[in-house]
């Protein structure tokens, strides 16, 4: 009952530095309530195998409930002498029900199957929380896109002016990757829903315990088919770390744009006061710290994934203590996203878009050149030539310090005789946008459909 789960074959306790290295309660304590849920299910499995009497089961469950309440209230915590969450909780149970009954719980299980189960149930719960936060962010993007349906902006490739697009279309282009992240979480949950309880140390459970029973008690879909895999595999933790890193990358992409858009040179957005910070020396400053922290934390989330994969590489079967190193990176990733995603949502929801400025810049940088080429194609000019002629129009304008929208009928013959005066009708941002009316395109009708599609997808996930 001293929180140590082994020792019979040892003459003395561990060296101080050995214990300091081994100890994990400072990070695995957060799994305590999941461990208690596992213990309740395991106690019932012991009872079904007639290894606990009715009275013993009742006493054990009462002790576990009491311990759970004390863990929840903070009345019971890990002691400095506890090696890990499992040992601490066994100590707590023995303190409540006595060493005789408390000492019966560990039969037929190992910390190896315990921890493998706990990390799965913990991830299932936490990822559901991340998914709900990401859903809010998709909602914020959708709300901004709805509010600005019809507002044009300059679309870019290579960061250079490309073609005008609708601001809504652009904002929804950030919503789709996040919807896919939600799909990833839902999909990963199906793989996390297999309980390793009953794998014991590696070879499976003896004593007639029923892993399928424990799995269903814990809300899993079933128990693992291979006890060695069940205790040794952490690919699911790595997959979770990847999903978190991918969400970080998706937030970082949004954030980079907000950072650029909020510069005086772009002037596309203004950040809300509540979601920006000032400078201690420069009175004029309003800094996009939320966006910068998102960009920075993406690096950290990627590092967590890379570190975890490096830990897993080259591990022989079955359990190895290296696997204890899976926890801090994934816990850190979850902690970071739980503070980050709501802040990015707040920032996005309160962005003020300067639609006049966006509209003014939409045709800049000759972004209607493709429309000139497309007009020529409709006049049966082969596209290769149309491309040349439109390029000549760009050069003509560039030499004279004008935009394509400044062209008049008198300029056209000097550029190419095939440019009729009708071409001037397609030289408008609205015309260019609405011409792109194939599915997925930036035409207003398509973007309106897309708004419905995003809302529908979000409701499904
Ligand atoms: N703290 C360990 C981990 O996180 C729990 C399993 C320990 N098992 C063992 N045989 N030492 O992986």
TrEMBL record:
<feature type="domain" description="Fumarate lyase N-terminal">
    <location>
        <begin position="9"/>
        <end position="303"/>
    </location>
</feature>
<dbReference type="InterPro" id="IPR024083">
    <property type="entry name" value="Fumarase/histidase_N"/>
</dbReference>
<keyword id="KW-0055">Arginine biosynthesis</keyword>
<dbReference type="Pfam" id="PF00206">
    <property type="entry name" value="Lyase_1"/>
</dbReference>
<comment type="similarity">
    <text>Belongs to the lyase 1 family. Argininosuccinate lyase subfamily.</text>
</comment>
<comment type="pathway">
    <text>Amino-acid biosynthesis; L-arginine biosynthesis; L-arginine from L-ornithine and carbamoyl phosphate: step 3/3.</text>
</comment>
<dbReference type="InterPro" id="IPR022761">
    <property type="entry name" value="Fumarate_lyase_N"/>
</dbReference>
<dbReference type="InterPro" id="IPR029419">
    <property type="entry name" value="Arg_succ_lyase_C"/>
</dbReference>
<keyword id="KW-0963">Cytoplasm</keyword>
<dbReference type="InterPro" id="IPR009049">
    <property type="entry name" value="Argininosuccinate_lyase"/>
</dbReference>
<dbReference type="InterPro" id="IPR008948">
    <property type="entry name" value="L-Aspartase-like"/>
</dbReference>
<protein>
    <recommendedName>
        <fullName>Argininosuccinate lyase</fullName>
        <ecNumber>4.3.2.1</ecNumber>
    </recommendedName>
</protein>
<feature type="domain" description="Argininosuccinate lyase C-terminal">
    <location>
        <begin position="366"/>
        <end position="433"/>
    </location>
</feature>
<dbReference type="InterPro" id="IPR020557">
    <property type="entry name" value="Fumarate_lyase_CS"/>
</dbReference>
<dbReference type="GO" id="GO:0004056">
    <property type="term" value="F:argininosuccinate lyase activity"/>
</dbReference>
<keyword id="KW-0456">Lyase</keyword>
<dbReference type="InterPro" id="IPR000362">
    <property type="entry name" value="Fumarate_lyase_fam"/>
</dbReference>
<keyword id="KW-0028">Amino-acid biosynthesis</keyword>
<dbReference type="Pfam" id="PF14698">
    <property type="entry name" value="ASL_C2"/>
</dbReference>
């Amino acid at each position: 009952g001293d929180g140590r789960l082994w020792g019979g074959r040892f003459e003395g306790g561990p060296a101080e530095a050995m214990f300091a290295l081994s100890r994990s309660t400072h990070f695995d304590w957060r799994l305590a309530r999941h461990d208690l849920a596992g213990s309740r299910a395991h106690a019932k499995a012991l009872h079904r195998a007639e290894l606990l009497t009715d009275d013993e089961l009742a006493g054990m469950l009462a002790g576990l409930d009491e311990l759970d309440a004390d863990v929840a209230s903070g009345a019971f915590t890990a002691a400095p002498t506890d090696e890990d969450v499992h040992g601490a909780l066994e100590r707590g149970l023995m303190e409540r029900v006595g060493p005789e009954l408390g000492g019966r719980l560990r039969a037929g299980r190992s910390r190896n199957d315990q921890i493998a189960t706990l990390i799965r149930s913990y991830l299932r719960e936490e990822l559901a929380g991340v998914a709900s936060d990401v859903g809010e962010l998709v909602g914020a993007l959708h709300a901004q896109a709805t509010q600005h349906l019809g507002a044009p902006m300059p679309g870019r490739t290579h960061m250079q002016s490309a073609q005008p697009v609708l601001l809504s279309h652009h904002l929804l282009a950030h919503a789709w990757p996040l919807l896919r992240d939600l799909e990833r979480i839902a999909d990963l949950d199906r793989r996390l829903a297999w309980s390793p309880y009953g794998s014991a140390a590696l070879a499976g459970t003896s004593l007639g315990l029923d892993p399928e029973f424990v799995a269903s008690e814990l809300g899993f879909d079933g128990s693992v088919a291979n006890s060695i895999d069940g205790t040794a595999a952490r690919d699911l933790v790595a997959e979770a770390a990847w999903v978190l890193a991918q969400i970080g990358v998706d937030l970082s992409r949004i954030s980079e744009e907000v950072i650029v858009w909020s510069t005086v040179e772009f002037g596309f957005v203004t950040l809300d006061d509540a979601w920006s910070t000032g400078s201690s020396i420069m009175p004029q400053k309003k800094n996009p710290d939320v966006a910068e922290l998102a960009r920075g934390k993406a690096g950290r989330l990627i590092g967590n994934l890379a570190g975890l994969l490096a830990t897993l590489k080259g591990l022989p079967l079955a359990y190895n203590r290296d696997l204890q190193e899976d926890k801090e990176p994934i816990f850190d990733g979850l902690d970071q996203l739980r503070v980050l995603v709501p802040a990015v949502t707040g920032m996005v929801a309160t962005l003020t878009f300067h639609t006049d400025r966006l509209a003014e810049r939409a045709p800049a940088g000759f972004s209607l050149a493709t429309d000139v080429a497309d007009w020529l194609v409709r006049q049966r000019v082969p596209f290769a030539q149309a491309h040349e002629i439109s390029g000549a129009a760009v050069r003509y304008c560039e030499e004279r310090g004008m935009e394509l929208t400044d062209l008049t009928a008198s300029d056209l013959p000097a550029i190419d005789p095939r440019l009729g005066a009708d071409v001037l009708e397609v030289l408008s941002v609205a015309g260019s946008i609405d011409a792109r009316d194939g599915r997925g395109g930036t035409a207003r009708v398509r973007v309106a459909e897309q708004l419905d599609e995003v809302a529908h997808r979000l409701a499904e996930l």
